[in-house]
């Protein structure tokens, strides 16, 4: 069995694979495909499968845990290049995107 962590970034998709039986940790990398991030993710998984001499289907069937992370939403907010989007929020949190995790002097109403 494998434990896999995949991080889809703006430039590269990183894949870490832990082989549970040996404790061996291996890293794989593929270019991210911004038009369809799933392609970059699958390419990273294919590289991992090849390293273990498995077809991607066989490799994926042996994944007991898959952790997925991405910065794509954050990058879209920072670059302001995504679809026009609204945000629903609760009272006092309207500026959460603007301040991110910074200090907040005055609450907005």
What does it look like?
This protein is α+β, with helices and mostly antiparallel strands and 109 residues long. The protein has a single domain, classed as Nucleotidyltransferase, domain 5 (2-Layer Sandwich), CATH 3.30.420. It is 30% helix and 28% strand. The protein starts with a strand and ends in a 10-residue tail after the last helix. The model has no long low-confidence stretch (mean pLDDT 88).
Keywords:
single chain; 109 residues; alpha+beta; 4 helices; 30% helix; 28% strand
DSSP helical segment count: 4
Strand order across the biggest sheet? 3-2-1-4
**What's the gyration radius in Å?**
19 Å
The largest pleated sheet is described as: 4 strands, mixed
Taken as a percent bin, the fraction of beta residues is 25-35%
What is the number of domains? 1
Give a short overview:
Helices cover 30% and strands 28% of the residues.
Write the layout of secondary structure elements.
Elements: E1 2-8, E2 12-19, E3 24-31, H1 37-51, H2 56-61, E4 63-70, H3 72-79, H4 96-99
Parallel strand pairs: 1-4
Antiparallel strand pairs: 1-2, 2-3
């Amino acid at each position: 069995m494998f434990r896999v962590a995949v991080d889809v970034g703006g430039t590269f998709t990183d894949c870490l694979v832990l082989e549970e039986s040996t404790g061996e940790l291996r890293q794989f990398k593929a270019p991210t495909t911004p038009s369809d991030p799933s392609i970059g993710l699958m390419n990273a998984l294919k590289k991992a499968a090849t390293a273990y001499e498995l077809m991607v289907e066989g490799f994926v069937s042996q994944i007991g845990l898959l952790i997925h992370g991405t910065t794509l939403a954050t990058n879209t907010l920072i670059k302001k290049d995504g679809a026009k989007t609204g945000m629903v929020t609760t009272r006092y949190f309207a500026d959460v995107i603007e301040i991110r995790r910074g200090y907040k002097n005055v609450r907005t109403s």
